[in-house]
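pipeline stage [seq->struct] | target=Ferric uptake regulation protein | organism=Cupriavidus yeoncheonensis | residues=128
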Amino acid sequence: MVLRILHDNPDRHMLAERMCAALVRRDATAAISTFRTAIYDLNNARVLSRVLVPLNANRTQTLYEIADNPRHRHLYCTVCRTIFEVCDAVMEQQIAHQFALAGLKSANFDLARVGKCLACSEANLTRR
């Protein structure tokens, strides 16, 4: 059910709370705690990936996505709240190389880089 909900979501990235709400809409008898456990288990099995989005100095939000794409990074617009996927094989090779040099295995999450997208920046300029 978790994978179906994520697959049916056009944004591809969802908060656990939104997934739980979608589950309740589909099956009112489902236990939320079981659903949350499934999300964490699927993440540990690397079926799902986590994307941590810094909202401010003290808060982050965690989005989940199906881990079916090639490795990629995330950019997040703090104005329109759009998440962008960046696929760059050369960058991924460099990151893998740096992990290997440090003797680390990468975790199953990405820390989104935040900023203001071009559309929001241009909209801000036209309002002045």
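stage status: PASS
auto-comment: Strands lie at 14-15, 48-54, 60-66, 73-77, 83-86, 109-111, 113-115. The chain is about 40% helix and 25% strand.
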